[in-house]
Amino acid sequence: xxxxxxxxxxxxxxxxxxxxxxxxxxxxxxxxxxxxxxxxxxxxxxxxxxxxxxxxxxxxxxxxxxxxxxxxxxxxxxxxxxxxxxxxxxxxxxxxxxxxxxxxxxxxxxxxxxxxxxxxxxxxxxxxxxxxxxxxxxxxxxxxxxxxxxxxxxxxxxxxxxxxxxxxxxxxxxxxxxxxxxxxxxxxxxxxxxxxxxxxxxxxxxxxxxxxxxxxxxxxxxxxxxxxxxxxxxxxxxxxxxxxxxxxxxxxxxxxxxxxxxxxxxxxxxxxxxxxxxxxxxxxxxxxxxxx
Length: 292
Ligand SMILES: [Zn+2]
Known about the structure:
This protein is α+β, with helices and mostly antiparallel strands. It has seven helices and six strands, in the order ααααββαβαβαββ. It folds into two domains: about 1-20 and about 30-155; about 165-285, no CATH class. A hairpin with a 3-residue loop joins strand 1 (about 170-175) and strand 2. The structure holds zinc ion.
């Protein structure tokens, strides 16, 4: 029998990019315009007399604060658009789920007919292929929604993470929404294979990685996610607990998000690596680097 599972790989950055291509933010034009305004004001400032030098530090702080505000607005705008796209994908998922139900019923009927010798094997195979294709579409919708929820969760929790006190090397803390571990191992994405091996040996299936390093979504959110990966496991699940225990033993830093919304499982996941609170180069030079 033809396998009905999709076998979709975890690193679907290209598809993520295509999904978000439509979100090319009009706000980015505003951002560029804002940058131009800063540039022009800098020229103006440079042309001023020497006595204005004393005011430069104040002006710089003011620009930085305005830049932070603009970055926050840009992120909020991006998150809003992601939520809109997510709502559209939810509707598509409902249609694809209906399609799978209908094709499954049709396949069972045809199997009966085939068993009675009333239809050919080719006719049965045709329905089976249609059902497999519908299941792929349904699985892709579900996976995309999960990826989006995780990205939205990290973006929404950024301010909370930035506001947390710094954690000592090897430190561990747990709250209703977050579990943090400041592991001291020199983690890099190149070590991901070891974690994947541990997980597949323990649970017999692949580690559900939804974001491996920097993705177009992180670019859009201006997050530095280059040396981190996200795993779609609830930290309180059996598999999640095992993974966290493995990471602590290996000294690998992580942040586990129970949820951005207390009591709701949406967006719960495990971020392996340093937190992505730092902005990508050029977007926010005043961003907090690597705070845990
Ligand atoms: Zn992450």
